[in-house]
Amino acid sequence: MTEPYRHREEIVNAHLAILLTRHGVAAEAETIHQSGQHRPDVMFILGGLRVIIEGKFSDAAGAEDAVMSDALSRVKSGICHIAVALVYPKDIRTTDTSQIEKILSTSRLRFNIISETEPTGWAEATPSGILSALRHIHGVLIKDDIVATSAKKLSERIELIADLWIGETATSDRLSERLGMPAKRGETKDEQKARRKTAIRVASLMIANALIFQEQLSSHGRDNRVDPLQTYDKSADPAGEIRNHWHEIWTKINYRPIFEIGEKILQDIPTSSRNIIPAVRWLIEEAKAICANQSALRHDLMGRIYHWLLYHSKYLGTYYTATSSATLLLKLVFAKEWEGRDFGSLKKLSDFVVADLACGTGTLLMAAAQAITDRFVVSRVKTGRKKLAAADLGDLHKILMENLLYGYDILPTAVNLTSSTLGMLAPNITYHNMNLFVMPMGVPAGTKKANSLRLGSLDFIGRNGVDIQFSLHDRQMFDRQTGVAIEKDTKAVIPDNIDLCVMNPPFVRSVGGNLLFGSLPDKERAKLQTELKKRSKDLQASVTAGLGSVFLALADKYLRIGGRLAFILPVALATGEAWGKSRRLLADGYHIETVIV
Ligand SMILES: C[S@@+](CC[C@H](N)C(=O)[O-])C[C@H]1O[C@@H](n2cnc3c(N)ncnc32)[C@H](O)[C@@H]1O
Fold first, then answer.
1. Calpha distance 64→68 (Å, rounded)
2. What's the CA-to-centroid distance between 551 and ligand 1, angstroms?
3. Same structural domain, 61 and 37
4. Do residue 38 and residue 176 come from a single domain?
5. Within 10 Å of residue 564's Cβ, how many Cβ atoms?
6. Å from CA of 521 to ligand 1 middle
7. Which atom of ligand 1 is nearest to the CA of 361?
8. CB 234: neighbour CB atoms within 10 A?
9. Residues 157 and 302 in one domain
10. Distance CA 321, CA 569 (A)
11. Sheet of 49-57: strands edge to edge?
């Protein structure tokens, strides 16, 4: 008597993939021919999230444990957002090939779903039941509620701290200097109070941010020199201990942009202040709660709170780019064909450049990093590349940080938050440099020369390197010969081969309230406006239309031929008289692919 044919798991996986596609799963459904042990069994995109199914037959030794461990490591390494550990009934091994799909569709399979929230636990369902369970989990993960709840709780704490500290005027003035929001000349009492309150709020946010980063590094990072937050549970002087530890981290390990500012803020608060201990304890509590919910950290939670705080303080009029808008824009951009670009090759990606010249807290750069990660994973799976392991995602993250993403803004605290928001996407990866720059804006003290006026990123008009005051990474420092001495100098540079320039530039216009450079005192503002008009005269832009028009023309100068622009601009671009030059620029040099209104 002949033995019935015994199918291998990948045959059943292939049938499962086809079955799921018939249930309306996005067309990305892929089954991987398992020549490499690092490759997931079945992968598809469900509403923008990557899902992987790891399956084994029930008669394989330790089947449940094996698929569970594979699924857990897929989510942990970031290869997918959701993983399903699946056990096939052993009878399917010997089912006639033509019948597999039919039998699978009615079989109750044992499954466990792993995502950033708790695993669901083992249960049994048919493939369509499993898909419903997946849709449910997907709904929970993408719900903005998680972020909104975390943001609300942390903001409430920050308000309490602001109320507690507002009487400490010397401290809040020191903080406001430190955070780049100095007192305006002739400030009214109300303005002074608002500025001080904003400084305390932003300082508290920066402390919370560094605490969250510390906790992430300690639980997901590879360096065991980073302490978990519970170390301070019984400490009599948590602020002092944290300050010292942050100093150790940025001087001996890395992450200077996050921990140096944190340390300096804590230094600005006198240790004698009675209010410091309760404030730090509240922030530790919130940081722990936020870290317990990893999916909040996949969004730019801190960016959202930051903009909310500034918006309510009417400070600088910076408007936040909603995460959903950023995700939509970048998904559309990366859904396009990029001629000659292989997104599955790390080597090729290392010379791909994405830049945001007004990056704020980095929402658009974060969305770009996520869209590129999607393309990387899908492209590797589709083209049957040898392996897709946690280490590959780690290498990708390093390239994103060190080579690919460029961000510039005038707000030091926003750029600091950008650095941690991006860093939190993979806290286990050590990177040595990031191309994030704080661009000076204003009239430097004692200057008479017009060309020493600083216009933020608009200083890149006509030159691709700009002296800046401080650097976020030591690698941005250069030696400068001054007479016989060598001084440390630091420069912001902009590549001239940008593949994608993504931006939500400041929209302020030069008419109606004259708000260009609106955060500056009147006299400075007038000088900068005159200088901007002069410097932008060779650009195809109109200062009257506003900074958006100038940023668009500037981006065009540094874009490589065949590159793309993805901008958020006022609807006046379509018809406004002042926007005529920008329309001409686009009509002459670009093919308009997508317009979202
Ligand atoms: C609409 S917001 C962009 C928000 C950003 N996409 C985000 O989500 O955080 C505009 C940004 O432009 C920055 N900005 C304003 N003037 C600038 C200048 N001259 N150079 C560089 N950045 C500037 C502001 O600080 C602000 O962060």
1. 6
2. 11
3. yes
4. no
5. 19
6. 18
7. 9
8. 7
9. yes
10. 12
11. 30-31, 42-46, 49-57, 82-88, 109-114, 123-125
Ligand 1 atom 5, closest CA: 360
User: Is residue 259 domain-shared with residue 175, that is, in the same domain?
Assistant: yes
State the CATH number of the domain containing residue 498: 3.40.50
Q: How far, in Å, from the CA of 115 to the mean position of ligand 1?
A: 34
Are 138 and 172 within one domain?
no
Minimum CA distance residue for ligand 1 atom 14: 358
Residues 480 and 573 in one domain: yes
Ligand 1 centroid to 277 CA: how many Å? 34
Is there a domain that residue 320 lies in? no
Q: Give the residue from 94, 118, 142 where a domain finishes.
A: 142
Question: Ligand 1 centre from 303 Cα, in Å?
Answer: 12
Atom of ligand 1 nearest to the CA of 414: 27
Single out the residue in 121, 142, 163 at which a domain terminates. Answer: 142
pLDDT of residue 480: 46
Ligand 1 binding site (Cβ under 6 Å of any ligand atom)? 303, 318-321, 358-361, 363-364, 408-411, 414, 439, 441, 455-458, 504, 506
The residue whose C-alpha atom lies closest to atom 19 belonging to ligand 1 is 456
What is the predicted pLDDT for the residue at 298?
Answer: 65
For 295-335, the pLDDT digits (tens) are 666 666 777 777 766 665 544 445 667 777 888 899 999 98
One domain for residues 571 and 452 = yes
CB 443 within 8 A of CB 528: yes
Domain range for 378 is 332-589
Looking at ligand 1, which atom is closest to the CA of residue 517?
Answer: 16
Which tokens is 100 given? Answer: 């597999």
442-494 tens-digit pLDDT? 887 777 777 788 999 999 999 999 888 665 555 554 554 444 555 556 789 99
DSSP 395: H
Which mutation among 359, 453, 567 tests ligand 1's pocket best, with the greatest number of atoms within 8 A of CB?
Answer: 359
365-412: pLDDT as tens digits: 999 998 999 889 888 877 766 567 777 888 999 999 999 999 999 888
- Is 167 among the domain residues? yes
Q: Among residues 393, 405, 403, which one has the least CA distance to residue 429?
A: 393
* Residue found by looking up tokens 């023309």 in the block: 553
User: 207 with 220, same domain?
Assistant: yes
Nearest residue (by CA) to ligand 1, atom 15, is 506
| Ligand 1 atom nearest to CA at 418 | 9
Residues 528 and 535: their CA atoms lie apart, in Å, by 10
The label of the residue with tokens 């622009």 reads 565
Task: With respect to residue 1, please indicate whether it lies within any of the assigned structural domains.
Answer: no
- Structurally, how many domains does the chain consist of? 3
Nearest atom of ligand 1 to the alpha carbon of 321: 8
From 356, 504, 519, mutation site for ligand 1 pocket: most ligand atoms within 8 A of C-beta: 504
